[in-house]
């Protein structure tokens, strides 16, 4: 009887201890996803590229805001040239915390820092590229008077879609490449660069 009573008391103490033990904290609720959809994010990157934004430090910085691993401005060493005909982006797959967006384009050629143009071997073959996106916390950034120095960054309470990885090499489309070469030719003092620019323009003007 004494053994049974002791066992009963032990069980009662164990039950009381279990009742007093704190329960594990509930996981915090996920922030809602707002802003641009996955396809709109990819289309925005291509809009920036079409407008020549990837060829300037400020435009490159804005584009990097859509990527998980931003990189410094490359400095126009090599610029890829895409056809004016591209897209539209379409969503190939999606889960709660991941999305895949595909976009088709024609890679035509490239322009180097001496304004020489080289054809891409597969210039007549359409390429489909898959972008992988994930939702990440969104922040409000306050820049300094110079427009480039970050002075404050605070969360805004929701997530937005971001492309995994770093931006592709610098690129733009044919029409913007023509404007870029014209501008660089006018700024150049080296006759060789001016000659390269004229030859490049002659080729680009035959494309679309």
Description:
The protein is an alpha+beta fold. The protein has a domain at 29-173. Helix content is 33%, strand content 31%. The chain has 5 helices and 7 strands. Strands 1, 2, 3, 4, 5, 6 and 7 form a 7-stranded mixed beta sheet that branches. A hairpin with a 6-residue loop joins strand 5 (126-143) and strand 6 (150-163). Helix 4 packs antiparallel against helix 5. It is flat and about 70 Å long. The model has no long low-confidence stretch (mean pLDDT 84).
List the helices and strands and how they pair.
Blueprint: H1 2-20, H2 38-50, H3 57-64, E1 78-82, E2 90-95, E3 98-112, E4 117-119, E5 126-143, E6 150-163, E7 171-173, H4 174-187, H5 191-204
Parallel strand pairs: 1-7
Antiparallel strand pairs: 1-3, 2-3, 3-4, 3-5, 5-6
Low-confidence stretches: none
Structural class by secondary-structure content? alpha+beta
The total of helices stands at 5
Q: How large is the share of residues in beta strands?
A: 25-35%
Order of helices and strands: HHHEEEEEEEHH
Question: What would you report as the Rg, rounded to the nearest angstrom?
Answer: 28 Å
Helical proportion, percent range: 25-40%
Write a compact overview of the structure shown.
This protein has a domain at 29-173. Helices cover 33% and strands 31% of the residues. It has helices spanning 2-20, 38-50, 57-64, 174-187, 191-204; strands at residues 78-82, 90-95, 98-112, 117-119, 126-143, 150-163, 171-173.
């Amino acid at each position: 009887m004494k053994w049974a009573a002791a066992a009963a008391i032990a069980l009662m103490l164990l039950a009381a201890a279990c009742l007093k033990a704190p329960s594990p904290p509930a996981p915090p609720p996920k922030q809602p996803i707002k802003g641009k959809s996955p396809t709109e994010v990819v289309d925005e990157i291509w809009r920036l590229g079409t407008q020549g934004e990837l060829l300037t430090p400020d435009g490159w910085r804005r584009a990097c805001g859509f990527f998980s691993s931003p990189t410094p401005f490359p400095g126009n060493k090599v610029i890829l040239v895409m056809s004016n005909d591209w897209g539209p982006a379409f969503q190939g797959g999606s889960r709660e915390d991941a999305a895949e967006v595909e976009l088709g384009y024609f890679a035509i050629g490239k322009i180097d820092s001496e304004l020489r143009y080289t054809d891409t071997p597969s210039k007549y073959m359409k390429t489909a590229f898959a972008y992988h996106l994930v939702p990440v916390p969104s922040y409000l950034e306050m820049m300094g008077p110079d427009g480039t120095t970050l002075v404050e960054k605070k969360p805004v309470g929701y997530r937005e879609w971001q492309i995994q990885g770093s931006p592709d090499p610098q690129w733009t489309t044919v029409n913007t490449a023509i404007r870029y070469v014209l501008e660089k030719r006018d700024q150049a003092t080296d006759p060789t660069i001016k000659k390269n620019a004229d030859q490049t323009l002659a080729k680009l003007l035959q494309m679309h």
